Queue: 4 jobs
Job 1
Amino acid sequence: MPVARPTDLDGALGSLAETPTADVLAGGTDAMIEITYGQRRPDHVLALRRVPELRGHEADGDRLRFGAMLTYTQMEHDLTELAPGLAMAARTVGSPQIRNAGTIGGNLGTASPAGDTLPWLLAMDAQVELTSVRGRRELPLSEFITGPKRTAREPDELITAVTVPRVDGPQHVAKIGPRNAMVISVACFAVIVDTTNRRVRAGMGSVGPTPLRPIEAETAVSDAIDWDQLSCPDDAIAGFAHACAEASQPITDHRSSDDYRRHAIGVLAARSLRRCLAA
């Protein structure tokens, strides 16, 4: 099995242009599970660990840019001020070893409905940067993920970064699983009380074929919030939770029933918003 290990972005893009069927490996935390269980048999591998242009993060004016090889550990420790919700999401991922290896680009590329960073990124209107030898383009996350583990990435494209607007206000991310740590979520929720634009942003994971954005719930609760006092009536918070549950599209599988997932997302929505307003 040939393994390409380029040391710069041009080399990575050239390698993928020559072999667009190659399996692109970032941290490998999802790929190794599939390979171990015989669900994937790559003919070629493109390993990105040595590509410096894909690392790190930066604040550029009113936007934040996260390189595709930014690890969960780096998110957890380096983004507590710039992107506190993303840092919270990173802390819930696996073990320290997994967080050291796993990346935001890998989470996007895998496109699992249970991806831990995806609800926050969706709530933040994230733009996914895709690059090939043909050029560069950006897609909204809502268009990039097309179904469970399916994306709009072309075979010769790499995910090079993801960008979000820079906003002020409290943020919270929460998840429910069959145990307290190192677990795939049964339901996960992200909320940003965006005081810059006076709106509530929300994203839901593990309750649909893709991460979901409860727009009607966001609009209703945004209108109910007193933005000067940063407070909200209890009945409006309850309505927000109910609307989020109604917007979910859960299934029943070996980890949970659809009814439990719908109930859980409502509980997480109310709890997360209350924690933001009490911050």
Job 2
Amino acid sequence: MSLANGRPYLAIPGPSVIPDRVLRAMHRGSPNIYEGPLIEMVAGLWPDLRSVAGTTGHVAMYIGNGHAGWEAANANLFHKGEKALVLAVGQFGLSWANSARAMGIEVEVLDFGKSSPADMARVEAALRADKGHKIKAVLTTQVDTASTIKTDIPALRAAMDAAGHPALLAVDCIASLGCDEFRMDAWGVDVLVGACQKGLMTPPGLAFIWFSEAARLRCGKSDLATPYWAWGPRAEAEEFWQLWNGTAPTTHLYGLREALDMIHEEGLPQIWARHRTLAGAVWAAFDAWAAGNPAIGMNVSDPRHRGHSVTAARFGAPHATRLRDWCETKAGVTLGIGLGMAPSTDPAYHGFLRVAHMGHVNAHMTLGALAVMEAGMTALGIPHGPGALAAAAQVVAKGA
């Protein structure tokens, strides 16, 4: 018998749960794209997007996913042959490096592995070694969606300043924006890459680039920036169509408008606190389960280096895949795969999973997902320690 009938819960790290308010806002016919309410509504998006990022800088929006955001950043930051220093703390740092390399950008990667945070001393040393200042920009993820490692962006900025290097700082916040604290201007970030399908609670389809005036002046007109990817016309559009280099993504814009209203109503500090509490509840459960089974554990041992939007964990192969299958088919909860921890052809692949707690998520969703996971472990005979649900509930009670 399955207990999965009813509303399913998608606890994967994007696309995240779409609020009913956003779905209702998107459920409409196509509007006039030349004049009237759509144009007036869209004008209000830009100030709110700046607020979410903590910047007074420029914003460019693209029809695309997070990979489109990388390509937009690459195309505008670099001329072909210029150099990037990429900090990799998991799969997505390496993927951004591959994206840049495929576009003709020279790439140096500092790979810190899949479970350790970036070592700022190594970053500083690499920048000091670049005597000729060939490195145009440092690229990093704030939270790597696969490893769930969080990079300390103020510490990175401090390391760059200590090295006396003029490189620009570009940060991928696709998995963290609207979940973890981020302050673009205060932290000295020049370029921010985001997407709508995680903390911004809108179906996949929009990518964003925020960029500072310093970045605009330093980068100029890149030979990689084709008419579609160039950020200038989008950030300084004289006509509405230039914002998208063509037809506007109308239904997504209405959804984004509603999502930004929800973020404003709750307030960013409260949103950050909610995600911190829900993440803590997940961590408390894993600590309890691990006490009865050393094969269970979180990918990042130090909580200071964990993102608050998603938790990567190990269960020992093949138990992670078995548990994911049970949770989805028997109880209606979909957990994330262990992306990047092992090749899908390697039996070890089946020992990893991720639990998302990003965006439109509350206490009963997170506690419910943990309860389903424990039921699955019990049903499947996966050894685990007791008290996980009580520990998670205690975190929620303290944070409420």
Job 3
Amino acid sequence: MFPQKTILIVPLNWGIGHASRCIPIVHALLEMNQRVVLAADGAPLALLRSTFPDLPWLYFPSHEPHYGKGKSVVAPLLAQAPALLWQLISDHRKVEQLVKECGADAVISDNRFGAYSSKVPSVFITHQVHLHLPKGMGWATQAAKFVNNLVASRYSNCWIPDFGDERSLAGDLSHPPFKHLPTKYIGPLSRFATIEDHLEPEVVDLLVMLSGPEPQRSIFEKEVLKQLDDFKGTVVIARAVPQGKPLSDVAKNVYLFNHIGDERLKRLILGAKTIVARAGYSTIMDLVALQRTALLVPTPGQSEQEYLGSRLGKKGYFLFAEQHNFDLRSAPMAGLATAAFPSFAPNLLRDCLAQWLALG
């Protein structure tokens, strides 16, 4: 048994994916008798608090980027660059304050660039060791690489939620590892890994899993609802907005939920005849953990999702469609994968945590 330490967990607030993949890490730390403090705001905080209602938490304000309504995100991102840079600086200052406030012995940041401490060991979790920039920003590749490496160097360690071998899900995004920073591949992470395996599947004809930043999340939701006018089967839409407003009535066969608890969502994923989802990495890891395929529709302009959707489609794991030509009539084809998914390896995470805690 390891001496108890206080670990501050800080996920990025760009959708709920970064918070969801912190869930298995928190479970593992608690099993190792560690004290965990959550630090977030908005939907990520709502998700983590609903999953761990007894854990202490701290409010950590964030800037959530807006990607614009068009396919190109170059102009919106450039316009927000000063705000994002200031967020990085303010995040670092805030983390130092929170470390002192809760007596943290270490910080684990899921892709939140500025969430490192100069006072205690800090871990950076990312699957994007190598960034894929949006179309039209190729000129900034070297600058982005420099900034990514510079920011990561502020941390003590990097953990990559992927396999380090041919089973890799993230491909070129996560390989090769950082050269200037102690880095470990801890295997894919899924919030469903700690939920009982023998759940009764909840059978529905179509499950739509929305996620990601606005306004594209809402744009895609409206497109899905429009295409459901002639859909006869039972549809469940997981909106991924835990703090969303009350929902308006829709067709009798369509059920919208601002948030679905992990246990029920697992039953729905296992039982859905067809699944449509964003190509976010956390969503992909959840689907692979449950050995379920889907029609992946990347958020427009998010080149990381476009790369993942295309790459995993070519490997035979998923179908892939861009949002501008998305058609629900092609979704039933996503019933079966043409290739076997790699199995998860939870011992990679446990071994990494054990070594890290032992080092102090």
Job 4
Amino acid sequence: MRSDVEVGGCLSGGLDSSAIASVVGKKFPDSKFKTFTVYYEGENEVDERPWVTEVLNKYPQLDPYYFTPSDDDIQNSFERAIWHADVPLAGSSPISQYFVMQLAATKGIKVLLDGQGSDEMLGGYMHSLFRLIGGDLGCGKIGSALKQLNAHAAMQDFSFGKKSNLFLKSLLAGFQSEQALYELEYKRYYPFLSKSNEIPFKLKDNKGSRLNQFLYQLTFASSLPTLLQFEDRNSMAFSIESRVPFLDHRLVEFAFSLPDEAKIHKGVTKRILRESMRDIMPPAITDRKDKKGFVTPGEVKWLRGPLSFLLDQNFKELDFLQYHKVNHLIDDFKYGNNKNANLVWRLVVLRWWMGRN
């Protein structure tokens, strides 16, 4: 919060941004701290405003601002957002973040707090649970593994099929290295399009529990570096300094020194964050069971609407991929199949980006 200019904050309604806004509300009760939220209306859209309201009800001195992009906003901002990113966008959420930064800039904010990093170092993603249970299975702690499995399945009201899927993925994670698991995921998702079968990455080995080995890769190799790339480019597009409190090096070092049960316990993710915030954050958010992430409708709704022009490019220019497979994926999506929408998004945005670089 130390700054010569006004400080604001992102507020999605999730655990991380709500924790930051709640601490500001608690520690700076006289501050008219501006918060910024992007939302989408419509059937099956993720609209986090009810969760944002929980924070605002507890700390009414917070000053909220909202924005919902129109089709024209999305179409008119797409080229600029990718130009600032300087890389193809792997998903549509960075464009939503672009709108958050744009909204903050219109209110004169030059420093913005955001919640990046908590999921990666405290086990907020579903894949973290695979490693936790798998770590117990790999060490022969069958009872502990089943307790964690059953607790999470009960909390999320999993069917027998989903529970079995969780067990099998955990079993795999318990007896494979992170490098092997990343390679398996890569081969399943990408190379069927590629003309090369080479694995283009090598993860750095690290020590610790099975869970911490995974969180290390998320924090230093895969997820977080990508998110911070977009965070930096989107904020600087509007001359905003983005601050990420969770990534203070002292907090990161502390998080990696913690035992697994401080991070995930009986199905509860990011346990230490929830418990430390219990008297500061609204109970409805502290005890949230769902995990939404920064969900946006771009991969389906935008590609069928304001960004549909991306589907009509010449994909033969992607000459390092197998054209007939790429073309089949695009045509299949055009005919209404959303199964591979995320991959279609990556292909069409990659092609568009290459045409301008």
